[in-house]
Design goal:
Elements lengths: L20 H19 L10 E10 L6 E10 L10 E5 L10 H9 L3 E5 L19 H13 L6 E3 L2 E2 L1 E6 L1 H12 L3 E7 L5 H5 L27 H12 L5 H7 L15 H6 L4 H13 L4 H9 L13 E6 L7 H12 L5 E6 L9 H19 L9 E5 L6 H8 L2 E5 L12 E8 L3 E5 L17 H4 L11 E6 L6 E14 L5 E10 L5 E2 L6 E5 L10 E14 L4 E7 L12 E7 L4 E6 L3 E4 L1 H32 L14 E9 L5 E10 L4 E5 L6 H8 L7 E6 L2 E2 L10 E4 L11 H12 L8 H8 L14 H13 L5 E5 L7 H16 L3 E5 L3 H7 L2 E6 L2 E7 H5 L4 E6 L5 H9 L8 E2 L4 E4 L5 H10 L4 E6 L3 H11 L1
Parallel strand pairs: 3-4, 3-7, 7-8, 8-9, 9-10, 10-11, 27-32, 27-33, 30-31, 31-32
Antiparallel strand pairs: 1-2, 2-4, 5-6, 11-12, 12-24, 13-15, 13-23, 14-22, 15-21, 16-20, 16-22, 17-18, 17-19, 17-21, 25-26, 25-28, 28-29, 33-34, 35-37, 35-38, 36-37
Helix pairs in contact: 1-15, 3-4, 6-9, 9-10, 17-19, 18-19
Protein name: Alpha/beta fold hydrolase
Keywords: ATP-binding, Hydrolase, Membrane, Nucleotide-binding, Transmembrane, Transmembrane helix, Transport
InterPro entries: AAA+_ATPase, AB_hydrolase_fold, ABC_transporter-like_ATP-bd, ABC_transporter-like_CS, Galactose-bd-like_sf, P-loop_NTPase, Xaa-Pro-like_dom, Xaa-Pro_dipept_C
Length: about 950
C-alpha cells in the first residue's frame, strides 16, 4: 500500500487539519484490512516447480543472420515420457525477454514449456529492428518453432511440428498474429493490445463509416491520407532507438532502472540518428516526422508489418485482448483483426479490459487476463474443454471519470455469448440520440498553435490525469449537444455521426470527440480518445457544404441520467501533426441529426476482486464519515477563533513582525525578526549556518510556533493548521519521496493527502514548469539527486500556490539545471505569485532574486533589492570603448594605490579601487589614452554578504 510522504518533506500539505486519534487508528488499520481481504481471494491452482535454460539461438543467414537471446521455462512435469504443449512468449516494443518473465513463469507453472526471447535489435539479441518484418522477426519465430520441435519434452503433432501457442502484448501481439499467418504450425494465439494496421494506427483517418461491418468498434482504415500521430510515433521510435529493456509499457509505467549514459564518442552519426532500426524503417519515420505526410514509401514499410494484409491466412484459434485506455492501438484495431480472422471460420474470442498503453491494468485485472490466456491455451493446446471458447467480454461501463473509472471498471465485467457482427452474426445494437447545433466556424491557427490538449503519450491522457478535464481552445471547435438523457446509455464501441463541412482550400484536418457533459456543465472525455479526420474534396461554399461520415473513438462508458452527449469537432490536437497555414472551416450537422451509439447487452459478472472491493468500499465510507465528523468538530473550534485580517494582505503575501523563537534551554534561534515580501517578488533569504533561516521558514509554514511576534500570510495569521497555509507550497529539509514509487505516483499521492480535488493540482503544469521529462514515470530509487530535487520542487508547485517557499532548491543540480531553475522561479513570480528562496549559493541568489534579506545570529542585518545591497561598496565596473586596450587597462588599474585584483567579466573590468577615488581612476585611464565607455559602482553580492556578516 502506498504511504504518505514522511515528516521530513514538510508538508503533509500546509493547511491540513489535525486528525483525531480514532481516525488515525482506522487509517492505520486500512492496509491491514486490505491485506486480509486480498488474502480471501480464491487460491489459484498450485504452481509447478519451474527450471530455466538460457541459450543463444542462431537465426537467419548471410547479412541478416542474428543470435537470439532465449530463456526456456520448463515445468517439472514436462519430460520425454510426458511431453507438454509449448508457448512462445513475445515481448512488447522496447522490452526484452526479461519483460515477460512473470507471465512466462505463470504459464510454466500451469504446465506449459515456455520459450521467451529478445527480438532482434532488443535486449542481448543481435541484429536490427524490422518492426515485425515477415522476412526477419517472423522468420525468427519459425526458427524457434524448429527448436521446440526438436525437444522431447514438447508435444509434437507431427515430425517437426510442435503443439504450440504464441502470445504477446503490443509488438509481441502483432508478432503472434503474423507468425500464425506465415507458419501453419502455430496452433493457437493470444495477441494483446496490438495493431491490425500500423498505417491506420500512426496515420488514422476516421472520416468514414465501415459499411456493413456490424461490429461494435468498427473503425475505418486509412487510404491515401491520414493525420500523423506524431507524439506516439516519436515515443515509439525513441524507445526503439535506445531500448531500455523494460519496454514501451515499462517506460510509461515507471518500471525499470536508470542506466549509465553510453559512450557515444566515435560512433557513426547515422547510428545515433537511427539507433537499432533498419535503415528503411528509420527513413520512413524521419520522413513522417519531418513532413507529417503519408507517402507510398512509408505505407509500404508499415503495411509490410501489419497483420491486416494476411488475416485470411490465420486458422489458429485467436484470443484478442485490447485495452479501453489506449490512444496508441485503440479498440478498432482489435475489431478489424476479429472481423478478418473470423471470416476464415476461425474461432475468435474478444476481451476488452480496463487499461492499455495509456493506463496500466490493475493487479486484479492482470491476473484475470493471465487466466484468460491460460484458459484459451488449455482449450486448444490440451483439448481439455475448460477454455472459454468464443464470446466477448468488456469492463462494466461506469459514468465515472477515467481516472477513478479504471478502478471500478476492473471490478466487474460484462459477458456476451458472441462478439456482435462476426462472420455473419447479428450486428451490434445501436441507439439513435438526437443532437442539435447550428453551423459554426472552426479556426485553424497559424502554425497549429495553441493546440487542444487531450492525449499526452507516455503520461496517459490528460483526461485521466486531471480527473476528466481536457483543454479545448475557444474558437477552434464546434459543439453539438443532446438533450439531458432520461435513461442511462451504455456506449460499447464506436459511435457514428454525419457532419456538413466546408473549407476554403477544399481540405481540413479535424478531430472529433464524444464528451460526457454533467448537469453542472463539467465535461469528461472518456479514455481521453479522439478521432482524427483527414478531410479532402470539401466544398469551399459554406452554403453548400460536403457531407462527411465520421466514426468517433471506440469507448466503454455510461452516460448517466441527466447527462448530455456532446459531439465536439476541433481543428487542433497537440498529439498530432497539424497544418501550419491559418484557415477557417465551417462545421454543421448533416440533415440526419442523430448520433448512432452502439450497445452490447450482456451478463454482468463480478471478478474475484469484486467482493473485496465492496468490503473495502464499506471501510472507506466509514472512514469518510469519521473524517466528516472530525472536520465538523475542528471547523466549529476554529470558528471560535478571532482572526485579524490585515487590509493590505493580498499585496503583502508574507510579513514577519518582531518574531522571536526561543527554546527551553535558553537558545534563541530567531530574535526580533521583521520584514515583508510584496507580490511578484523573488526574495532571497541569506545567512551563514546557524543564522536562523530554516527556523524562520519552519515557523512560516506552521510547523513550529514563534515565542513572540506575528507571522501573517496574505493578511491572515500563520500557525499550525491555519487555513491560509493552503495557499503556500514548500520544499524544506529533504525531498521525503518514496523510493519504491515513481515520481508521478509520489506527486499524485502527495496531492491526495491534501484532500483537495485532483483537478486543483495543476499536475501537468507543475511537471512542465519543473522540466521533469519522461523519467518521471520511473521509480524514484533510480533518480539522480538532481532529479529528486526537481520532483520535490514540482511537488511544492502542485496547486500553483500563491506563495512558494524553497530551501536550497538547486542542491544537486548541474549548471544547466541551475540556469533552468532560475528561469522557472523568475517566470513563476512574473505571474503575480511570490517566491522565497533560501540558499547558500550567493551567485544564484544574485542572478535569481529581486530582493534579499540577510540574517546573522538569528537577526536581520539588512533588507533591500539586490542592486541596493550590491551598490554600496568600493568596487567599480569599467567598460572600455576598445577591447584592444584591455591588457593596458588591467595593468593600470591594478597598479593604483590600494587597488585590488582586476577581474575580467563579460560586462567589463571589475576592481576594488580601495582608497583611490573613481574620479582619479578615470583621469588615469584617460591620460593613458584608454577610452572609457562607463565607470560605475560595482561589487558582487558575495562581497556585500561577507562585508555585512563580518560587520555583524
Amino acid at each position: 500500500m502506498r504511504t504518505a510522504p514522511g515528516p521530513a518533506r514538510i508538508g503533509s500539505r500546509p493547511g491540513a487539519r489535525p486528525v483525531p486519534s480514532a481516525l488515525l487508528a482506522l487509517l492505520f488499520l486500512l492496509p491491514v484490512l486490505t491485506a486480509v481481504l486480498v488474502g480471501t481471494a480464491p487460491a489459484a491452482r498450485a504452481a509447478e516447480e519451474v527450471s530455466t535454460e538460457d541459450a543463444r539461438v542462431p537465426s537467419g543467414s548471410g547479412a541478416d543472420a542474428v543470435e537470439l537471446d532465449t530463456t526456456l521455462y520448463r515445468p517439472a512435469s514436462a519430460t520425454a515420457g510426458s511431453p507438454a504443449p509449448a508457448v512462445l512468449l513475445a515481448h512488447g516494443f522496447g522490452g526484452s525477454k526479461t519483460s515477460v518473465d512473470a507471465d512466462a513463469r505463470d504459464l510454466a507453472g500451469r504446465g506449459y514449456v515456455v520459450l521467451a526471447w529478445s527480438a532482434r535489435g532488443f535486449g542481448a539479441s543481435t541484429g536490427q529492428i524490422g518492426l515485425d518484418d515477415p522476412r526477419y522477426e517472423v522468420a525468427d519465430v519459425s526458427t524457434l518453432l524448429d527448436l521446440l520441435a526438436a525437444r522431447d519434452d514438447v508435444v509434437r503433432d507431427a515430425p517437426g511440428d510442435p503443439r504450440v501457442g504464441v502470445a504477446g502484448g503490443s509488438y509481441g501481439g502483432a508478432l503472434s498474429l503474423l507468425a500464425a499467418a506465415y507458419d501453419d504450425r502455430v496452433d493457437a494465439i493470444a495477441p494483446q493490445i496490438t495493431w491490425n494496421s500500423l498505417t491506420t494506427a500512426f496515420f488514422p483517418d476516421q472520416a468514414a463509416e465501415v459499411a456493413g461491418a456490424g461490429t461494435p468498434a468498427a473503425t475505418p482504415g486509412t487510404d491515401d491520407v491520414g493525420v500523423f500521430k506524431r507524439l506516439w510515433a516519436g515515443l515509439f521510435f525513441g524507445v526503439g532507438s535506445v531500448p531500455t529493456g523494460d519496454g514501451l509499457l515499462g517506460a510509461l509505467g515507471g518500471g525499470g532502472s536508470a542506466a549509465a549514459a553510453p559512450d557515444l564518442s566515435g560512433i557513426d552519426p547515422q547510428l545515433l540518428t537511427c539507433g537499432r532500426f533498419r535503415s528503411d524503417v528509420c527513413a520512413a519515420y524521419q520522413s513522417a516526422a519531418a513532413t507529417g505526410t503519408l507517402t507510398p514509401e512509408i505505407a509500404a514499410v508499415l503495411d509490410r508489418s501489419s497483420p491486416a494484409g494476411v488475416l485470411d491466412r490465420i486458422t489458429a484459434p485467436t484470443l484478442l485482448v485490447q485495452g479501453t485506455q489506449d490512444s496508441l492501438f485503440g479498440l478498432g484495431q482489435a475489431d478489424a483483426n476479429a472481423r478478418g480472422i473470423a471470416a476464415n471460420g476461425t474461432d475468435v474470442r474478444v476481451v476488452w479490459y480496463a487499461g492499455g498503453h495509456d493506463s496500466p491494468a490493475s493487479a486484479g485485472v492482470t491476473a484475470d487476463l493471465r487466466d484468460e490466456v491460460a484458459g484459451w491455451f488449455d482449450r486448444y493446446l490440451r483439448d481439455s474443454g475448460t477454455g472459454t471458447g468464443g464470446g466477448f467480454s468488456y469492463p462494466a461501463p461506469t459514468g465515472l471519470g477515467s481516472g477513478l473509472g479504471q478502478v471500478q471498471g476492473g471490478s466487474q465485467t460484462v459477458s456476451a455469448p458472441t462478439y456482435p457482427g462476426l462472420d455473419g452474426g447479428d450486428p451490434v445494437q445501436r441507439r439513435d440520440v438526437a443532437v442539435t447545433g447550428g453551423t459554426q466556424p472552426v479556426v485553424n491557427p497559424a502554425g497549429g498553435s495553441p493546440a487542444a490538449l487531450t492525449i499526452v503519450p507516455g503520461l496517459g491522457s490528460v483526461s485521466s490525469a486531471l480527473g476528466g478535464t481536457t483543454l479545448e481552445i475557444p474558437g477552434q471547435f464546434a459543439a453539438f449537444d443532446s438533450a439531458p438523457l432520461t435513461t442511462a446509455v451504455d456506449v460499447v464501441g464506436a459511435s457514428t455521426v454525419r457532419l456538413a463541412v466546408s473549407a476554403p482550400g477544399g481540405t481540413a484536418t479535424m478531430f472529433a470527440k464524444l464528451y460526457d457533459v454533467g448537469p453542472d456543465g463539467s465535461t469528461t472525455l472518456p479514455g481521453g480518445l479522439v478521432a482524427p479526420l483527414a478531410l479532402t474534396g470539401l466544398s469551399a461554399d459554406p452554403a453548400a457544404p460536403t457531407e462527411v461520415a465520421v466514426t468517433l473513438p471506440a469507448i466503454v462508458h455510461r452516460f448517466e441520467v441527466g447527462h448530455s452527449m456532446r459531439v465536439l469537432v476541433s481543428s487542433t490536437d497537440q498529439a498530432f501533426s497539424l497544418p501550419v497555414q491559418p484557415a477557417v472551416a465551417s462545421v454543421a450537422l448533416a440533415d440526419r441529426t442523430t448520433l448512432s451509439v452502439p450497445e452490447v447487452p450482456g451478463q454482468v459478472q463480478a471478478t474475484a476482486g469484486a467482493t473485496r472491493w465492496w468490503v473495502l468500499l464499506g471501510v472507506l465510507v466509514l472512514l469518510g464519515l469519521l473524517g466528516w465528523l472530525a472536520a465538523v468538530l475542528i471547523g466549529r473550534r476554529r470558528a471560535r477563533r478571532v482572526s485579524v485580517v490585515e487590509p493590505d494582505g493580498e499585496d503583502v503575501p508574507l510579513r514577519f513582525e518582531n518574531v522571536t523563537k526561543a527554546y527551553k534551554d535558553g537558545f534563541v534561534a530567531v530574535r526580533d525578526l521583521s520584514f515583508e515580501v510584496r507580490r511578484g517578488q523573488v526574495l532571497g533569504l541569506l545567512g551563514p549556518n546557524g543564522a536562523g533561516k530554516t527556523t524562520s521558514l519552519r515557523m512560516l509554514m506552521g510547523l513550529i510556533r514563534p515565542t513572540e511576534g506575528r507571522i501573517s500570510i496574505f493578511g491572515h495569521a500563520a500557525g499550525p493548521g491555519a487555513p491560509v497555509l493552503s495557499r503556500l507550497g514548500s520544499f524544506v529539509e529533504g525531498t521525503g519521496l518514496q523510493p519504491h514509487l515513481s515520481g508521478r505516483d509520489n506527486l499524485t499521492l502527495y496531492w491526495a493527502a491534501t484532500g483537495r480535488p485532483l483537478a486543483d493540482a495543476h499536475m501537468e503544469e507543475a511537471i512542465e514548469i519543473a522540466g521533469l521529462g519522461t523519467a518521471l514515470d520511473k521509480r524514484v530509487r533510480s533518480y539522480s539527486q538532481g532529479m529528486r530535487q526537481r520532483v520535490a520542487i514540482a511537488q511544492a508547485m502542485l496547486g500553483l500556490p500563491d506563495l512558494l517557499v524553497l530551501d536550497e532548491p538547486t542542491n544537486g543540480l548541474d549548471p544547466p539545471q541551475i540556469h533552468a531553475m532560475r528561469e522557472v522561479l523568475q517566470d513563476y513570480a512574473r505571474t503575480g505569485r511570490t517566491v522565497i528562496v533560501s540558499s547558500h549559493l550567493l551567485s544564484e541568489i544574485e542572478q535569481t532574486c529581486s530582493h534579499v534579506v540577510v540574517m546573522a545570529k538569528g537577526q536581520k542585518i539588512v533588507q533591500g533589492t539586490v542592486e541596493e545591497i550590491i551598490g554600496a561598496g568600493g568596487s567599480v565596473l569599467v567598460g572600455l570603448a576598445d577591447p584592444a586596450d584591455t591588457d593596458r587597462a588591467v595593468a593600470l588599474l591594478g597598479g593604483l594605490p590600494g587597488a585590488g585584483t582586476v577581474e575580467r567579466t563579460s560586462e567589463g573590468l571589475v576592481v576594488d579601487l580601495g582608497p583611490t577615488g573613481r574620479a582619479a581612476a578615470l583621469t588615469a585611464l584617460v591620460e593613458a589614452g584608454i577610452a572609457v565607455d562607463q565607470l560605475t559602482p560595482r561589487r558582487r553580492l558575495e562581497d556585500a554578504f561577507l562585508s555585512l556578516v563580518g560587520e555583524s
